[in-house]
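2024-03-11 09:14:02 INFO queue: dequeued item 60S ribosomal protein L16, len=314
2024-03-11 09:14:02 INFO validating residues
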Amino acid sequence: MGTKLLKRNRFTMSSFEPVVSNYQYSTVRLFQRPHKIIATDFEASWDERHDALGDIAYLSLHLLAKIRPTPKLTPYVAMHPPRELLDKPLLWDLIVIVDGKGHLLGRLASIVAKQLLNGQKVVVVRCEALNISGEFFRSKRTLYHLYPASDSCCIALARIGGLDLKYHAYLRKMTRFNPTRGGPFHFRAPSRIFYKAIRGMIPHKTARGAAALERLKVFEGVPPPYDKKKKMVVPQALRVLRLQPGRKYCTVGRLSHEVGWKYQDVVARLEERRKAKGAAYYERKRVAARQIADAKKTAAGKSQASKKLAALGY
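2024-03-11 09:14:37 INFO prediction written
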């Protein structure tokens, strides 16, 4: 059993760059087993151990270049793994498609962010149907408390209120010297609002965080080819399971439309067209399944008659 001290640095993997450990040095022990190698980092956190374990188990040459094999670990086994290991697909090579309808924005963003950092590729569709807890409208009294009556936009914003009021307060935050250069840049589209929520939960200024964001795709509606693929839900983020009955909520699509998103009608029209095509496909599939069932029953009856004729010599 060999022990090797590794400096804290980033090693490039297939699509992301995890950090080995939070410490200056970390102890990585290699245990040789038949047909595979397992690495354990006792000082690193669980997530970092999971990243290193998955990558070493599938024998990434970049990591093996950092860790020199011990005398019991033959270089031939390290550089020429069995085919069953190479043919096995990685978990993060599979794309998970999440239907955003009925999910709470913050809860879904936190779960998606964690999966992205773990190496999972995620696609979120129908971002305009995401929910935010809290009523959309709020009294004008709160609005006048935030925006003085002398403000020119106060009368226009007083008709909106609610979460839209919070978003307008967010829109007013800008750099004093040059807002066009210094930001912050405010997104209006539902997909970009959700994207920014995820970005705030990821160290996006590091190589690891930037690589994690590259694994994310967000869309309004369900564009091709995701309209014909299986979609998932996240029970930990569903509104019907997280919010108490009777609690008020709003949709991100309505909020975006109030603050300047111009494609609500376009997305709604495309969604109606997609649902009509899906309903027609489901009807054809149901008819075909019924015909197949009838054909199987007919074939079963004919097979019994054939057996009786064969017993009589015909």
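2024-03-11 09:14:37 INFO annotate: DSSP finds 14 helices and eight strands in the chain.
2024-03-11 09:14:38 INFO item closed
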